[in-house]
Amino acid sequence: MLRSASLLRACRPALIRAYATAPSTHALVFLEHRNGAIESGSLAALTAAQQLGGEVTGLVVGSPDQVPPVLDKARK
C-alpha cells in the first residue's frame, strides 16, 4: 500500500507556485483621529511601517475641515 502511494506521487506532475512580489516593501496605514489628534495606536503603526523601509501610504477619513490638520501632523 505504501509503495503504490509513493508511485502515484512520482507519476503526478509537480505543481509549481509563483508569487508576485513587489520590488520593495509597501505599507498602507489607516490613521484614526479625534479632534485633529492622531490616535496613539495609529502613530505606532505609522512608525513601524516607516521602520520597514519602502513606501508608506496613510489613509485619513474625515470632513474637509478635519483632514488637513491631521495630514500635517502625519507628515511630521
Summarize the model shown.
The protein is an alpha+beta fold and 76 residues long. The chain has helices at residues 2-11, 40-52, 67-75; strands at 26-30, 33-34, 37-38, 55-59.
Q: What key phrases describe this protein's structure?
A:
18% strand, 4 strands, alpha+beta, two-stranded parallel ribbon, 76 residues
Q: What spatial order of strands do you see in the largest sheet? A: 1-4
Globally, the shape reads: elongated
Count up the helices: 3
Low-confidence parts lasting 5 or more residues at pLDDT below 50? none
Q: Whole-Å distance between the termini?
A: 66 Å
**Count of all domains:** 1
Structural class estimated from helices and strands:
alpha+beta
Proportion of residues in extended strands: 15-25%
> What are the secondary-structure elements, in order, as H or E?
HEEEHEH
Helix content: 40-55%
Commentary on this structure:
This protein is of the alpha+beta class and 76 residues long. It has one domain. It has 3 helices and 4 strands; from the N terminus they run H-E-E-E-H-E-H. The longest helix has 13 residues. The model has no long low-confidence stretch (mean pLDDT 80).
